[in-house]
Amino acid sequence: MPSQKSSGVAAVLSALINGLGQIYNGQILKGIIIILIQMVNGALTFVLVGYIFLPIVWIYAVIDAYRSAEKINARNYRRYGR
């Protein structure tokens, strides 16, 4: 049976470093893309545009990591039971 993912751990990891929660959930490409987007947003703070998009992507990454872990666990529960 595949391992359960802690939705809390996924959310905290993504809150610390955006994209890390997605990588923890096994969504490697999605996590790398989010990390790259946040790097660009960080660079764009020099022209003030990044201050708008940085928190939006941060919130998205945390919520997505949490929900993805919940979906993975639900799928594993339906497939394999406990």
Strand-helix topology:
Elements: H1 7-16, H2 20-24, H3 28-44, H4 50-80
Helix pairs in contact: 1-4, 3-4
Keywords: Membrane, Transmembrane, Transmembrane helix
Transmembrane segments: 31-63
Protein name: TM2 domain-containing protein
Describe the structure concisely for a colleague:
It contains four helices and no strands. It is mainly α and 82 residues long.
Give a description of the structure.
There is one protein chain. The chain is mainly alpha-helical and 82 residues long. The protein has one domain (7-80). The protein contains 4 helices and no strands. Helix 1 packs antiparallel against helix 4 and helix 3 runs antiparallel to helix 4. The longest helix has 31 residues, at 50-80. The protein is elongated and about 50 Å long. The chain starts with 6 loop residues before the first helix and ends with a helix.
Relevant terms:
4 helices, elongated, 82 residues
